[in-house]
Structure prediction request, 78 residues.
Amino acid sequence: MNEVTSQPGEGGPGRPERASGFSLDVDSRTVADAVRNYVNRLRAGDPGALPSVLGLVLLVIIFSRVSGRFLTSYNVGN
Prediction:
């Protein structure tokens, strides 16, 4: 006798059908929890976007020192 078994996330008898096997991210976090999580990731060696953001800030500082027109509204608008 062929028995049909449903995989997780496929629904089936008595189970609601889901779009995927992932649960919804509904955990509530505070800002302190998010900062703590980010610092823990940095300590673990995952810098994320930090090098890119720091590089961009460094370039803005350098270009604003070299040219007085760098941070004008016309230049920023372009």
Summary: The mean pLDDT is 81. Helices lie at 31-43, 50-66, 73-77. The longest helix spans residues 50-66.
